[in-house]
Amino acid sequence: MADIKSLDDLKAAVAAPAEAAAAAAPRAPVRDKLGRSYATGKRKDAVARVWVKPGSGKVTVNGKDMAAYFARPVLQMILKQPFTVANVEGQFDVMATVTGGGLSGQAGAVKHGISKALQIYEPSLRGALKAAGFLTRDSRVVERKKYGKPKARRSFQFSKR
Q: Which candidate, 62, 38, 44, 145, places its Cα nearest to that of 100?
């Protein structure tokens, strides 16, 4: 080990290997033999399997066009957010299969999957997607029902007499 005489020397000795490891191993793109990147997105009870590949910007969800599957404009906007933040609109085709939950949860799951797949395909997009909070899984799920209660927290009506 290096000659350590002060606290500053110790901090420098500890920080040097971490900096070397970060500089030596940048993230590498991960693609299959068809040129696609895969990621799993989750939101509430919905789970989406998402494949991203270079293309014209076509989004297919469960074999249907995005506009046919997610009829509400708000849900379509949610799916387009990762592309807008990363400045890659119209450059990638998306094929997703999503199960569980409702339409809102499914849209959030596909958005999460698209974001993860984009940063796997092109690691340089990670900063923008992470800053927007798209790589973090929203962990809020429905609370379980407790015994002796009609719902998760709701109690039966109290009667003094």
A: 44
> Facing residues of 43 across strands?
46
The answer to whether 139 touches 161, Cβ cutoff 8 Å, is: no
Rg of the chain taking only CA atoms, in angstroms: 22
If DSSP codes are grouped into helix, strand and coil, which group holds residue 21?
helix
Give the DSSP H or E segment for 54.
strand 46-54
Contact 120, 50 (CB under 8 A): no
Query: What are 62-105's pLDDT values in tens digits?
Result: 999 999 999 999 999 999 999 999 999 999 999 999 999 999 99
Measured CA to CA, the distance from residue 53 to residue 144 in angstroms comes to: 38
Q: Does residue 144 sit in helix, strand or coil? A: coil
Q: pTM for the full model?
A: 0.80
Is residue 117 within 8 Å of 20, Cβ to Cβ?
no
Distance between CA atoms of 41 and 69, rounded to whole angstroms?
17
